[in-house]
Specification:
427 residues, mainly alpha, Isoleucyl-tRNA Synthetase, Domain 1, 2 domains, 0% strand
Length: 427
């Protein structure tokens, strides 16, 4: 018992000293309004070769506005998210956070309130660090959510531009956690946010730092916006797959839903595809539609230029079989209905997300993809009739290439619901 008393007394002495220090730091920090500490961020390094936390703050102000506006959130909230971005990192220049680094954001909120900042600004400052780890809560306000997305994206893009990427268990900047946080915040908000479109905007203000890099090899990826965007999307994909797996979605459905990730980088649309495909896979039409899709894409890949080449448009004046005309007309009609369904769903989902109804926004997109898969199922009989009546690989090169172009158009339309060839058909 005497030993325990000594241990307790020692711990109490240490705690008293630390709490005394904390009280002193707190009283000292209160003497300076939070906004007046922003300039001091010039003395705090963000990332070697990529400026200071003041530089990052300027990027955050710009990027938070870009994200806010791009999501169609209420214009009257732009000033609030901009102010929160301006003050988001200011507490790093306080004595309290310098000594107790785990309080970043927490003290920012308290000092913002003490400085007379609006509560929405103060809460966003605290929330933009969320989630701090697996299972942690997500930002609750749109201001905190947008600021969290902007902050984490800026860090991820800057690190990848600098050639810093996690390897094995080594992830000193917590990039994997931050990528997972971006995806979780986007989905929680129901935001239709295309990373493929946003990443180049994130990278743009980093260009002066990239040009200043002494090592050309290190900055090579960053100098090519396309390569950097592809690298960022590739980095996000494993985190997205984990998120879908945690929802209980099977691996082949995930493969099918994420097939277009590199072109759009939209987490909500990918999640919606996965949920719709998971349901569709249980339907009776699944097996036949999957078989038709595989046959269509297999032949379409033989078109001049091959897969990924410049897609040719089919020319109706080269059609000679009734089944060709029928498939062409059916493909055009289905494509219009698919585009209309997606456009309508996106508009409704954006409005719901802007109103704070994120789960409903995701649900709207799921319903849209279910409708699309039903539409594609209706196209299948016409596709099958085409293969029954038309010899695709005819000797006439012009007719052959035109028929392959027609199949390419059909493949593009059928691919709107995901890559059906990835789905495993049970024997």
């Amino acid at each position: 018992q005497e030993g325990l008393d000594l241990v307790r007394a020692g711990n109490e002495k240490v705690l008293e000293a630390r709490l005394s220090d904390a009280r002193f730091f707190f009283e000292e920090d209160k003497k300076t309004p939070l906004a007046e500490r922003v300039d001091a961020l010039d003395g705090i390094l963000f990332l070697e070769g990529f400026g200071t936390m003041r530089d990052k703050t300027e990027r955050l102000v710009r990027l938070a506005g870009v994200v806010w506006e791009g999501l169609g959130l209420p214009p009257e909230g732009m000033a609030t998210v901009g102010r929160a971005a301006r003050l988001a990192k200011a507490d790093l220049a306080t004595k309290m956070v310098y000594e107790f680094t785990e309080l970043e954001g927490v003290m920012g909120r308290e000092y913002a309130l003490l400085s007379g900042e609006p509560r929405e600004v103060a809460e966003a400052i605290a929330e933009h660090y969320l989630p701090r780890g697996a299972g942690d809560r997500l930002p609750a306000s749109p201001f905190g959510r947008v600021l969290a997305i902007a902050d984490k994206l800026d860090t991820i893009v800057a690190c990848l531009a600098a050639g810093i990427e996690p390897t094995g268990s080594h992830d000193p900047y917590g990039l994997r956690r931050q990528a997972a946080g971006v995806l979780a915040a986007v989905i929680d908000g129901g935001y239709l946010l295309s990373l493929a479109e946003l990443v180049p905007k994130v990278a743009e203000p980093l260009e002066p730092f990239v040009r200043a890099q002494a090592s050309q090899a290190r900055a090579m990826q960053a100098r090519d916006p396309g390569r950097l965007t592809a690298a960022v999307l590739t980095f996000f994909l494993p985190r997205l797959r984990v998120l879908l797996e945690e929802e209980g979605i099977e691996y082949d459905v995930i493969d099918a839903a994420t097939a277009g990730w590199g072109e759009e980088g939209d987490a909500v649309r990918t999640l919606a595809k996965a949920r719709a495909l998971a349901t569709f896979k249980q339907a009776g039409e699944f097996r036949d539609l999957s078989a038709s899709y595989i046959r269509v894409t297999g032949l379409a890949g033989r078109a001049a230029g091959g897969p990924g080449g410049q897609a040719r448009r089919p020319l109706p004046n080269l059609f000679s079989e009734e089944a060709e005309f029928q498939l062409y007309q059916a493909c055009l009609a289905a494509g219009e209905r698919v585009s209309s369904a997606l456009a309508s769903a996106r508009e409704r989902a954006r409005k719901m997300a802007a109103a704070g109804r994120g789960a409903e926004a995701v649900g709207v997109m799921v319903d849209a993809y279910r409708t699309i898969l039903e539409e594609l199922s209706n196209l299948r009989p016409t596709v099958d009739r085409f293969f029954d009546d038309v010899l695709v690989m005819t000797e006439d090169e012009n007719i052959r290439e035109n028929r392959l172009a027609l199949l390419g158009a059909v493949a593009a339309t059928m691919g709107a619901g995901g890559d059906l060839s990835k789905l495993v058909v049970a024997s």
